[in-house]
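Hello again,

I reread your note about wanting to compare the complex against the isolated chains. To keep things tidy I'm splitting this into two emails, and this first one only covers the full assembly. Below are the input lines as submitted, including protein chains and any nucleic acid or small-molecule components. They are followed by the predicted structure of everything together. The single-chain runs will come separately.
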Amino acid sequence: MTTTDVKGPESTGDEQANEAVGGAAGAAPVAAQDVLVEDEDRGEAGRAVRAELEDEGIALPGSPASGEDSHATRANRVRSFEVADFSRPTSKDEEWRFTPLRVLSPLFEDLPTEDLEGDPAVDYQISVPEGAPEASTLAPGQSPRGTALVPEDIVSAVASARTEQALHLRAPRGAELADPFRVAITGRGAERRGNAHVVLETEESSVATFVLDHTGSARFAENVEMIVGDNSQMTVISLQNWEDDALHISAHHSRLGRDARLKHIVVTLGGRAVRINAIGEFSAPGSELEKLGLYFSDEGQFLEHRIFVDHAAPKCTSNSAYKGALQGKGARSVWVGDVLIRKEAEGTSTYELNRNLVLTEGARADSVPNLEIETGEIEGAGHAAATGRFDDEQLFYLRARGIPELEARRLVVRGFFAELIQQIDVPEIREALTDSIEAELQRSMN
Amino acid sequence: MSILEIRDLHATVETPEGTKEILKGVDLTIRSGETHAIMGPNGSGKSTLAYSIAGHPKYEITSGTVTLDGEDVLAMSVDERARAGLFLAMQYPVEVPGVTVSNFLRTAKTAIDGEAPALRTWVKDVRGAMDNLKMDPVFAERNVNEGFSGGEKKRHEILQMELLKPSMAILDETDSGLDVDALRVVSEGVNRAKDTTDVGVMLITHYTRILNYIKPDFVHVFVNGQVAEQGGPELAERLEAEGYERFLTGAK
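Full-complex prediction:
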């Protein structure tokens, strides 16, 4: 594990670490669902109990996964390109229970991208590195589109069905591309719907980095499909630098070939409500998946990150580390980490970690790690989740050493994110990110 | 030459039972180079005095003044007080996750001095000060107070005092819970700071033991939110022999 924690030990089943797992840190409990009639039979207390039960989150062969049926069948979820196969999410769905459905409801509508003549809802600026073919497009059903990503919820199904030509970026066989592919995705109106499907591909033995940078504002339903060829190395960096009023739901689905490596990085700082479901699937032995995430939720912001790592092949390694800071009234974050080690996935090594740093009263972080293990023949499997709080006593301590309040917060947040940021291999993104975090802090301080 | 003047200081704290007055008119003057021992039984308000001077938000100053070289300390924010030259070595230093000792010290030094310290001399200074306090160099890369033992926390407090070079230092029960070796190391650190920077020291303690290592110029007996009696080092000896009883009977 390359990430050090900020608070609490990291071992599986550790009491201190698990204490905060699934629980919420924050002041007054804030309802996950903004206002929902369906939610009325399940109060805050009910949810807390559920969350506590889940904090073990480990299912061994022969035992049901924490008594949660939906988790025991994590692998058997509906997957389909047909929008009609999915229903609108409700707060009763395990998958959606933390999400403010009313806020995100525009994205549950089956609507086309709202382009006008000469005025697209979402603008795409694409730059392709030297040595790579020009960007091309793929129609539904046109391989490799759909080989990794098959929609698992209504938003993803709509994004797929409503994208006639998916953007296809490809690193050809054996190519080692020094510069990244860049896709600047700019929303051109908070009320306008955008649907997108992007296919990123590294062919056999190639090396490439892809950067997706989301700015502006939109109601954006997005699929990002990653096909990581045998013995290739892919890095994907998805930046959510949206304006305050953007809505964004995204399904990232990667499929790794034999001896392949994927480093998948998600950075979410902007948007009114953002939900990213990042799935990684091993299809052949010897592969390695690293999932990194960083988020900063400020006043009135909802940021949800879900990961699912599907160990469906032997001798694969996955490491996931997500860290989030929260500041301001109504700042919310959700992290749900599911790892499934299937019967055939002998020799698996996996670790997942989530850390949250609550900087002010009135912010709330939920964190739920789940591990399903169907074989005993593994190298190792662990998870840790904890939420720490930057409290008045810490602030007093730092200020009593002459450090002004903003600088004190900066110090703590920088330290919290430092090791994660160091793992982003593109220097200008690293720098921009450091600046963005400073800006977040500055903004929330005023 | 600095002078810290506390005049008729009253402070209250909110408790579940309502507002409670803890400081009931404290008068005290400390000059550069002087060491004042504040001794008193538990619950007499010694720590409240320390935290009130440092500006902890838990305590409300209801009347009185605190000035440092004539400047109104009570009008300053917590960090302004530190930058003005006040230092509080805390009895229970808090953990600050994610912030290494080395990063913390450099940030504090920069804030106090108004400019970043010259890197080469700074690294040497930190190493030297840690060495003197018998702190393992690995401490520099550990998170502030995280997993520190009681003795390590106190050394870390004195390390800061030596590096930040305040004009007035308040040491709040720095001796509590230390074994003899740690007490000696910590006391030597305080004495070094006194020798090199002429710092004025308010040494708050419950026990007389530390006074074998740090010689006070003045001793104040603190009872029920006030200075009940003051004198020279001989007063400490008397307390050692008699305890606080004779003050307590009068106070209650």
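For quick reference: Chain B has a mean pLDDT of 94.

B.
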